[in-house]
TrEMBL record:
Keyword Nucleotidyltransferase: no
Family annotation (SMART domains): PKS_KR
Signal sequence coordinates: none
Protein name, per record: 3-oxoacyl-[acyl-carrier protein] reductase
Pfam families associated with the record: adh_short_C2
Keyword Oxidoreductase listed: yes
InterPro entries: KR_dom (IPR057326), NAD(P)-bd_dom_sf (IPR036291), Sc_DH/Rdtase_CS (IPR020904), SDR_fam (IPR002347)
Keywords: Oxidoreductase
Domain Ketoreductase stretches: 9-196
GO molecular function: oxidoreductase activity
UniProt record similarity statement: Belongs to the short-chain dehydrogenases/reductases (SDR) family.
Length: 255
């Protein structure tokens, strides 16, 4: 399916070497977009995503760096604009549970890691992107929040849930602040989606319990998340949509 108004647009997708970010970046390439594919450690995977984008008719560069570092996160935005001349869409997707621990066992270092990666990075990316989106005549900021922002997260992920709660609230507040600049700000809240990160950090019993609570009785796939990001990226499809969190969770939580 082609979405005509996305052709030629420029996007930065953080955390796009694997998982949901990779699926979104690849889908953007299939729309003929120019995409900055971001990774931290998984350079080879990011290069593969960039190759897939170019094979589909889009343009791609690979940017590497830790978004927990505020200065590096801001640089990723500037490097995208330097490479492609503008920025139309920011997808602040990078994030992780980091480590599952009960709160009484969680140290200040873990707090800093989780908040810097999942919350501060979204704030810094948006702050850096806004002047460029304004200069482009408007644009779209899409953050990846989580089911955890609403249900408090699974075992040992309270800090992650709290950080994602920040992302959801930040989305709504920022949407009000930049609406008159024709910048729309929204988020996607995936449920239990099977990604390499999920498989590494979530115990099988926890996933099984989530499946039992999900009306569709299964986990989701990264490709099933892509449509929400395409919808929010397109002014033609979602031009009057801002400050919203779209739930992609198989019905495990309903508004």
């Amino acid at each position: 399916m082609q979405i005509p108004d996305l052709q030629g647009k420029v996007a930065l997708v953080t955390g796009s070497s694997t998982g949901i970010g990779a699926a979104v970046a690849t889908a953007f390439g299939q729309q003929g977009m120019a995409v900055a594919v971001h990774c931290n450690r998984t350079r080879a995977e990011a290069e593969a995503v960039a190759a897939a984008i170019e094979a589909a008719g889009g343009r791609a560069i690979v940017l590497q760096g830790d978004v927990s570092d505020a200065a590096r996160q801001a640089e990723l935005v500037e490097e995208t604009v330097a490479a492609f001349g503008r920025l139309d869409i920011l997808v602040a997707n990078a994030g992780s549970v980091v480590e599952r621990k009960p709160i009484e066992q969680a140290g200040d270092d873990l707090y800093d890691q989780v908040m810097d990666l999942n919350a501060r990075s979204v704030f810094v990316a948006a702050r850096a992107a806004i002047p460029h989106l304004r200069a482009a005549g408007g644009g779209s900021i899409i953050s990846t929040t989580s089911l955890a922002a609403r249900n408090g997260g699974g075992g040992g992920s309270v800090l992650y849930a709290a950080a994602k709660g920040f992302v959801s609230s930040f989305t709504r507040g920022l949407a009000k602040e930049v609406a008159r600049d024709r910048i729309r700000v929204n988020a996607v809240a995936p449920g239990v989606i099977m990604t390499p990160l999920q498989e590494r950090l979530t115990p099988a019993k926890q996933i099984e319990a989530a499946i039992r609570l999900t009306p569709m009785r299964r986990t989701g796939t990264t490709d099933e998340c892509v449509g929400a990001y395409l919808y929010l990226a397109s002014d033609a499809l979602s031009g009057f949509v801002t400050g919203q969190v779209i739930e992609v969770n198989g019905g495990i939580i309903m508004p």
